[in-house]
Design a protein that fits this description.
The complex is a heterodimer of chains A (805) and B (284).
Chain A (H helix, E strand, L loop, with lengths): L5 H10 L11 H5 L15 E7 L5 E7 L1 H5 L3 E5 L1 H4 L6 E3 L5 E3 L5 E2 L5 E7 L2 H10 L1 E6 L6 H4 L26 E8 L1 H9 L3 E12 L8 E7 L4 E6 L4 H12 L6 E4 L15 H13 L3 E4 L2 H7 L2 E13 L5 E13 L26 E10 L5 E3 L7 H19 L3 H8 L8 E2 L5 E2 L4 H11 L2 H16 L5 E11 L11 E2 L2 E2 L2 E7 L5 E5 L8 H13 L6 E5 L16 H28 L6 E4 L2 E4 L2 E7 H10 L10 E6 L8 E11 L5 E11 L6 H20 L30 E5 L17 H18 L13 H10 L5
Parallel strand pairs in A: 1-14, 12-13, 15-18, 16-17, 25-26, 32-33
Antiparallel strand pairs in A: 1-7, 2-6, 2-8, 3-7, 4-5, 9-17, 10-15, 11-12, 11-14, 15-16, 19-20, 21-31, 22-23, 24-25, 24-30, 27-28, 28-29, 31-32
Helix pairs in contact in A: 11-19, 15-16, 16-17, 18-19
Chain B lengths: L6 E3 L4 H11 L3 E4 L5 H6 L7 E4 L9 E4 L2 E5 L4 H6 L1 H6 L1 H7 L5 H6 L2 H7 L5 H8 L3 E6 L2 E6 H4 E3 L2 E2 L6 E8 L4 E7 L9 E10 L2 E10 L6 E2 L1 H7 L6 H14 L10 H22 L1
Parallel strand pairs in B: 1-3, 2-3
Antiparallel strand pairs in B: 4-5, 5-10, 6-7, 6-10, 8-9, 11-12, 12-13, 13-14
Helix pairs in contact in B: 7-8, 10-11, 11-12
Classes of the chains: A alpha+beta (805), B alpha+beta (284).
The complex binds flavin-adenine dinucleotide.
The site of flavin-adenine dinucleotide (FAD) has 30 residues of chain B, from strand 2, helix 2, helix 6, helix 7 and helix 8.
């Protein structure tokens, strides 16, 4: 049979399956303002809840007087820790094995902490009532520096026994949370001590925030008649929320329905369980009517999960020729007031142990100390998979510092050390098995695309011109080569609150040949309704336009662990393909029956089963679907449905090569990104246009973080960047034109070879932008300066290097 | 981010607005474009029990240019300043500066009157008006008076305007001088790290008059007479620019904020002032 006939091409095109830049089906409603977000939900009698928040970062609560607030017309309730205590809900467990106050219990530990929950007829009354709640505080000493915290006599967490081990082993100090070690420290130190060359660096990866456009929120509705609790919310993992809600409240899980409606971006911020959810549920139970709670921007930036805040020190050793021999990394991790990091249980520092990067490093060690401070809790993966952003930033800076130490070109240093194509699957020194890669090809393609040698020449000329006083602008060439680790993850070592990190898909084919598929994930802008339909279209031969993808309603969707860490395609995407294959297997039997041949004598061809060697004899998937519902087929149950729960055998390891060219005004610190080239390899490409959109978004968030986006605190623990005036959220104005490119190295263990791409650009982009800034100052002696590279910090670098006179 | 409750008034003329202002005294404030006042109310940093919306008062709107004198109604939006070609021909500095204020959405709403009356050192129009030597006309219960932009600002959020007065319009001379508004900001929609407005007239190759004013480098806009003097009579050569910058820097007093420490701001201010002078000179 001729596979290349125009007729067959037309059938393939009609499916809009994998590889096609199908337009996003979600966008029709989003661009017309027809989305349905949590704040769009309005139920009869619904009340609004809002928080009285602490103005102090560390203080004892002497008293709370709610009388005046309760007296305000329209106020229904004011909840404090005292009210929640009888239900044991004044504290709640965190995802990281710690516990967290729902409402301040005796003291507050960070500015903005939830102190009381006001429930009122509308949000305006609630806002007025908040002002009327009188809280008497006694200020306590504030610690905002994790390194000082470990030396301080001030006990932040009085609720914890300082001698007792925490969830991740022994604690060294009353403000210490855990030590996590991976690799061979003695061996690594021995290698480093004996090495030809050693480069060292200390770097601070500043605290920032995912800042989705839509903040967090929920509507809780307890129906006292049927005993059912419905919770709509901005949840990146609705099923996990249901399980947690059941465990906390004692309501049986079948009586809880959690719904994630449209979500306006998550980026990790919406993974955690927040006091607002608990208080809304309690308030709905108490009042018997629905209660809505939605954060405002300041609440979001100041209190719901931050990202990063890692103090990292590294040593990297190499031979005279530049072959890396060992890597040592230590992190002091600032987790804030409670350890509410969102990581798989066994990984208290996430996948930070991917910090050997894309390089063949024979021996390595990673140690992480988690520490309490008077800052908001969180520590989520902001557009990345569990601390991989920190890991990649670390190694991509260490490579640059080593290149400086060796007076080598950093592109060449990378090339010498890349894991070679033939080494995959590759066992890393810190315990991962990289599934597939072809780094040299990607690197060469990237360097050629930007004319790397030409750029270096231009840069050298610029430096000379600068020295002659002819220009005040320097040029930086930022390089980064990253390997992501996504698709958490194998149930044997990945779980969240004990729930294995599989994911799921359930498919129903309707009699007339269209279908609905439900998944355990939830799109927050990634376009799942578009791309998962494409996977299925290719797998089962039903046009993507005839397939509805539904997520986010725990009453209908199969159990899944949600969407974050680029896990949807690697895990739920795999489940989708596997469920599709079950459909196809049954369809094959039906087709064989209809065609009156043996099962093995038919084969799948785009949108039909054909009799082998007789392509004119076929049954389309539409015909097969109909038959599944209207014919009694011996030995085959009616209907055409399938479900798959996919436990991934391994993570997937997307990679990429990025280059940034930046001009920097030495006198003002102003940066101008002249060029940004991004080559991504995410394995099989499901929808190139969606990939491109993800790359653009991730790079933009990378630019933000590298060049200015931070959650900064003063010494008193006051948040200095609580609004978008000071918290940098780039607009079209600040964003350069991105050039995207790709190679394709499929994952060998994923059913369709796809690896996940939503977060790669963020992971690879941050070091690339940062390296560009740092590279500009390399000729003048710069080794490392910390992000964010905003104007004044760049100016400070130039100033410290004596470039102002 | 929800303001306290307030009464909303929408008078049709100045007299009506003034009477409400007088009646409620401290409890009343006028609302122009709302893009400074409403955020302050939402943050509950401003408590305004009586809000008097000026948008129905047509006498506060519009731009007229007669006999070399420009008159701009207080309720003219920044967007209107940018798109008015006659205004651009008469005083091109205005468009150049207005384009560097906030973003288009804010400029559709924000007014010149609100910008100059607000008294926020971050606002760009006050320094600009000082550079242009504009005159503000204020109308109060006891009549109308004028005050020069250069005399109007007393401290952050404190101006010469009496609480019961409304700024009705701004007038200034048309100018053919070389001009520049140079502003460094962290991002679109940001207030200045440092900004400087410069006008320079050149005759026979030398500077005959100059005007230099700065934004967000003190608790009030700073008009630097000394900087102008350093330029007059010269050719804006390196030494003159340096002298003018030194004079201007002596007049400012920036404070540390998230944009950076004082040392940085002083340095950047020097760079921005020099660039503004050089650009204005190149257009003179
Ligand atoms: C995101 C954002 C970015 C911004 N960036 C900049 C920027 O870069 N540069 C800049 O200059 N501004 C900036 N602004 C402020 C903006 O330009 C405001 O519009 C302007 O400061 C105030 O004008 P308004 O018409 O909105 O006044 P309003 O906010 O309505 O009023 C401001 C104050 O002036 C008083 N007032 C207004 N009109 C009169 C009048 N006729 N008589 C007496 N008193 C009056 C009010 O009572 C109030 O106290 C920004 C605003 C936002 C929201």
């Amino acid at each position: 049979m001729n596979d290349m006939t125009p007729e067959r091409d037309a059938r393939v095109a009609n499916l809009k399956g994998m590889g096609c830049s199908r337009k996003r089906v979600e966008d029709a409603r989003f661009t017309q303002g027809k989305g349905n977000y949590v704040d769009d939900i309005s139920l009869p009698g619904m009340l609004t809840g809002d928080f009285v928040r602490s103005p102090y970062a560390h203080a004892r609560i002497k008293s709370i007087n709610t009388e005046a607030a309760m007296a305000l017309e329209g106020v229904v309730a004011v909840l404090t820790a005292q009210d929640l205590a009888p239900l044991s809900l004044h504290w709640m467990p965190t995802l990281a094995g710690d516990k967290q106050m729902v409402l301040a219990d005796g003291k507050v530990l960070f500015q903005g902490q939830e102190v009381a929950f006001v429930v009122a007829k509308d949000r305006y009354i609630a806002a007025d009532a908040i002002e009327l709640v009188e809280v008497e505080y006694e200020e306590l000493p504030v610690i905002v520096d994790p390194i000082k915290s470990l030396q301080s006599d001030v006990v932040l967490r009085e609720d914890l026994d300082p001698k007792a081990p925490g969830a991740h082993g022994p604690r060294k100090h009353h403000n210490h949370i855990f030590t996590w070690e991976v690799g061979d420290e003695a061996g690594t130190n021995a290698v480093i001590d004996d090495a030809d060359v050693v480069a060292e660096a200390s770097m601070y990866y500043h605290r920032t925030h995912p800042c989705p456009l839509e903040p967090c929120g929920c509507v809780a509705s307890m129906d006292k008649v049927n005993g059912k609790l419905t919770l709509w919310g901005t949840f990146q993992a609705p099923h996990v929320v249901r399980t947690v809600a059941s465990l906390l409240s004692g309501i049986e899980e079948h009586n809880i329905r959690v719904v994630s409606p449209d979500i306006g971006g998550g980026f990790g911020n919406k993974v955690g369980v927040y006091p607002g959810y608990v208080c809304s549920i309690v308030a709905s139970i108490v009042t018997g009517v629905p209660v809505k709670w939605v954060e405002d921007r300041m609440d979001n930036l100041m209190t719901t999960a931050f990202a990063r805040d890692y103090w990292m020190t590294g040593k990297i050793s190499a031979t005279k020729e530049g072959k890396i021999t060992g890597l040592h990394c230590h992190v002091t991790a600032d987790h804030g007031a409670f350890d509410a990091c969102a990581d798989p249980t066994k990984f208290p520092a996430g996948f930070m142990n991917i910090c050997t990067g894309s390089y063949d490093i024979p021996i390595a060690y990673l140690g992480v100390d988690g520490v309490y401070t008077n800052k908001a809790p969180g520590g989520v993966s902001y557009r990345c998979s569990f601390r991989v952003t920190e890991a990649v930033y670390f190694i991509e800076r260490m490579i640059e510092v080593l290149a400086i130490e060796m007076d080598m070109d950093p592109a060449e240093l990378r090339r010498i050390n890349f894991i070679k194509k033939e080494q995959f699957p590759y066992q890393s020194a810190l315990g991962w098995e990289y599934d597939s890669g072809d780094y040299h090809t990607a690197w060469d393609k990237a360097l050629k695309a930007v004319d790397y040698d030409g750029l270096r020449k231009e840069q050298a000329e610029r430096v000379e011109a600068f020295k002659r006083g002819e220009t005040r602008t320097l040029m930086g060439i930022g390089l980064s080569f990253f390997t992501e680790i996504v698709g958490a993850g194998p149930v044997k070592n990945c779980d969240i609150l004990g729930m294995g990190m599989f994911d799921s898909c359930e498919i129903r084919i309707h009699p007339t040949g269209s279908a609905i598929a439900r998944l355990g994930t939830i799109s927050q802008g990634q376009g799942h309704a578009t791309t998962f339909a494409q996977i299925l279209a290719s797998e089962i031969g039903i046009p993507a336009d005839s397939i509805t993808i539904e997520e986010g309603d725990t009453d209908t969707a199969p159990y899944g662990l949600g969407t974050y860490g680029s896990r949807s395609t690697p895990v739920a995407g795999a489940a989708t393909a596997m469920a599709g294959r079950k459909i196809r297997a049954k369809a094959q039997m039906i087709a064989a029956y209809l065609l009156e041949v043996h099962d093995d004598d038919v084969e799948f061809d785009v949108d039909r089963f054909v009799v082998k060697g007789a392509p004119e004899r076929f049954k389309t998937m539409g015909e097969i679907a109909y038959a599944a519902y209207n014919q009694a087929i011996p030995g085959i149950e009616p209907g055409l449905e399938a479900v798959s729960y996919y436990d991934p055998p391994n993570m997937t390891y997307p990679f990429g090569a990025y280059v940034c060219v930046m001009d920097i005004d030495v006198d003002t610190g102003v940066t101008d990104i002249r060029r940004f080239y991004a080559l991504d390899d995410c394995g099989t490409r499901i929808n190139p246009m969606v990939i491109e959109g993800q790359i653009h978004g991730g790079l933009t968030e990378a630019l933000a973080v590298a060049l200015g986006q931070e959650i900064a605190y003063d010494e008193m623990g006051n948040v200095k960047t609580g609004t978008l005036m000071d918290f940098f959220l780039p607009t079209a104005w600040e964003v350069p034109n991105y050039e995207t490119d790709h190679t394709v190295t499929p994952s060998p263990h994923h059913p369709i070879g796809a690896k996940g791409v939503g977060e790669s650009p963020h992971v690879g982009g941050v070091p690339c932008f940062s390296n560009a800034v740092q590279d500009a100052f390399r000729p003048f002696g710069n080794r490392h300066t910390n992000m964010p590279h905003d104007h004044w910090r760049i100016w400070q670098t130039a100033n410290a290097l004596g470039l102002h006179h | 981010m929800i303001p306290a409750a307030f009464e909303y008034h929408r008078p049709a003329d100045i007299r009506g607005a003034l009477s409400i202002l007088v009646e409620h005294g401290d409890d009343a404030r006028v609302l122009a474009g709302g893009h400074s006042l409403i955020p302050m109310m939402k943050l509950r940093m401003a408590d305004v029990p009586h809000l008097i919306d000026l948008q129905d008062i047509s006498s506060l709107k519009g731009i007229t240019i007669e006999g070399g004198r420009i008159t701009i109604g207080a309720m003219t939006t920044q967007h209107e300043l940018i798109t008015n070609d006659a205004l651009h021909a008469a005083a091109p500095l205005l468009r150049e500066a207005a384009l560097q204020i906030a973003d288009p959405q804010v400029r559709y709403m924000g007014t010149i009157g609100g910008n100059v009356a607000n008294g926020d050192p971050g606002n760009d129009m006050p320094g600009l008006m000082q550079c242009l030597d504009a005159t503000f006309t204020l109308e109060g219960p006891n009549g109308t008076r004028t005050v020069q932009a250069r005399d109007f600002y007393e401290a952050a959020y404190t101006t010469d305007r009496d609480d019961a007065e409304i700024l009705t319009h701004i007038s200034l001379d048309a100018t053919t001088a070389g001009y520049a508004y140079e502003k460094q900001k962290r991002k679109i929609g940001d207030y200045a790290t440092a900004a400087c407005a410069v006008l320079i007239t050149k005759e026979n190759g030398v500077v005959t008059s100059a005007s230099v004013a700065m934004t967000n480098l003190s608790d009030v806009p700073v008009f630097s007479e000394a900087a102008a003097e350093a330029l007059i009579g010269g050719t804006c050569d390196t030494a003159a620019v340096k002298a003018a910058v030194a004079a201007a820097l002596a007049d400012i007093d920036p404070t540390e904020d998230n944009r950076g420490p004082v040392k940085f701001k002083m340095h950047v201010a020097g760079v921005i002032i020099a660039r503004a002078i050089e650009r204005a000179w190149s257009r003179a």
